């Protein structure tokens, strides 16, 4: 089955993009990366998504995350579409601040398991779904999310999950439901009470539960 699983080294594919031919790992250098795919150029939902992504590039930069988009049209189409995207943002003449991969032969879309069988173009070919891949500095896949073509993504949520991924890559914690930066986090279950006390100088509070089990442990990272 095509696709990439969590923990896999992300394929070091070569592709044509709006900034020329790239080799993916060289493009990423030592940064985190986010690759988001789009069903097609010059489509409404995709345009709003790319415009939103362009508007918050500083947020990705702050987190050390390199952005790259993908769609199944040509570099020429991508370049023309980018002008619409930036105009939609009220920034006519400003270049799109990240590249778009031209997967016009759908080779990457097949390799990465990105095709949406429910969305067929006028030639009967499937379009790409809205995939999100977050890749760590070790080039391994840290997160993937898959939306159908008909549902636009929430880029605030993508920033939130990147904050969680970057925090949990450094500390032995996990982020609870609806967590946002600054909130308390959970101590991971594999840490003993003694290890948790030593690791978290801000203290660990444990919620009493009917089971008597001491697994709901909060700390301020
Ligand atoms: C869109 O981006 O608006 C879109 C693309 C393909 C199918 C449905 C919506």
Describe this structure in words.
The chain has 221 residues and is α+β, with helices and mostly antiparallel strands. It contains seven helices and 13 strands. The protein has helices at residues 24-28, 44-55, 57-62, 75-88, 107-111, 155-170, 193-199; strands at 14-17, 20-23, 32-38, 65-71, 100-102, 115-120, 126-128, 130-135, 141-147, 173-174, 185-187, 204-206, 217-219. A hairpin with a 5-residue loop joins strand 6 and strand 7 (126-128). It is elongated, with a radius of gyration of 20 Å. It binds benzoic acid. Benzoic acid binds at residues 39-40, 43-46, 119, 127, 149-150. Benzoic acid (BEZ) binds at residues 39-40, 43-46, 119, 127, 149-150.
Share of helix among residues?
25-40%
> Between the first and last Cα atoms, what is the distance in angstroms?
39 Å
Count of DSSP-assigned helices: 7
Mean pLDDT: 96
Biggest pleated-sheet summary: 5 strands, mixed
Strand content: 25-35%
| Ligands bound to this protein structure | benzoic acid
Low-confidence runs: none
Strand order in space, largest sheet: 5-4-3-8-9
Overall geometric form: elongated
Number of strands: 13
Q: What's the multimeric state?
A: single chain
**Would you tell me the structural class of the helices and strands?**
alpha+beta
Radius of gyration: 20 Å
**What order do the SSEs take from the amino end to the carboxyl end, as H and E?**
EEHEHHEHEHEEEEHEEHEE
